Amino acid sequence: MPTEAESSVTPKYLQENELSQECKEVISTLPMERGWVASHLHQYQGFWHTTRQLQGVLSCQKHFKALDTDVLIVSTPKSGTTWLKAWTFSLLHRNQHDPNTQNQNHPLLFNNPHFLVPFLELDLYIDDNTLPDLTSLITSPRLFSTHLPYVSLPKSVQESACKIIYLCRDPKDAFISLWHFTNMLRPKSRGMNSLQEAFDKFCRGVSLYGPFWAHVLDYWQKSLSEPNKIMFMRFEEMKMKPRLVLQELATFVGCPFSKEEEEAGVVDHILKLCSFDNLSNLQVNKNGKLSSGEEHKAFFRCGQIGDCKNHLTAEMIQQLNTITQEKLAEHGLRF
Ligand SMILES: Nc1ncnc2c1ncn2[C@@H]1O[C@H](COP(=O)(O)OS(=O)(=O)O)[C@@H](OP(=O)(O)O)[C@H]1O
Q: What topology does CATH give the domain 4-8+27-331?
């Protein structure tokens, strides 16, 4: 058990108290496994959630009403969500906030991207008895995020014309990033998660919002059948051809860069503003904390492709490659 002091700094979605009656009843019917950080994971609609997070999932499924103009960032955990939030925020608000780093007033210089683009189930709807007042959001498009699998999205997201930007990453790097992140969040009294134990769980699909492969596959298939609704992105493409991917993203969300903007360097300004070096070295990201408890610096580790090689054995790499090949290759998806 975490100590009392540890519980008070544990993010809400990792706590197991203050559950609604409805959530308790749903949980009692669900398969359960031991969690990576919180004590338990529950399998709901085929995917794994921590106890309190599940309450956020149920609440946003019930209460969130998407508008046709909304933009929703959806990602598998540790795939570069923080980075994509920064890109999308600066892209959509470039007329109000000049992304040139000479502009000392840009909101990203003083706020972590997760504060500017909140998660539905982890932030806005985590407290069942305090629903967010979204009518006060006057900016359009409204920009939200979630890690929810397609099957669990609030119905209005699926049925409205809102846009979904989906981001995933090579599962080997996503796993290592998740392993580091969860070790940072684990109460000190529980020590570190063993790499082997976490790896076995990840391979079995028992990880936050896992199985990883089912999460990715559902969005991949939807992005093929509804390309105007879902844009499918990968961390590796953001790293390797950032200008092109950012331009495609701008077109997808309906605000392509004009020739004048291109010539004025707006694309490069956004890339520089949101770069790992720039964001991770800001005071707000070195010292700040989210209201949910995570330190901002926990979202910036190394931001590289292939860091898994520094942690996984050749056999582990082979094992993950084989699972990925078996589950995704026939659908035209490779990492
Ligand atoms: N600007 C920028 N550029 C490149 N990479 C970046 C950037 N910001 C965050 N990161 C890396 O993204 C990883 C964190 O993933 P997420 O942001 O998806 O985390 S979360 O799911 O929202 O908790 C984590 O990856 P790892 O470094 O491999 O752990 C971060 O370092």
A: Rossmann fold (3.40.50)
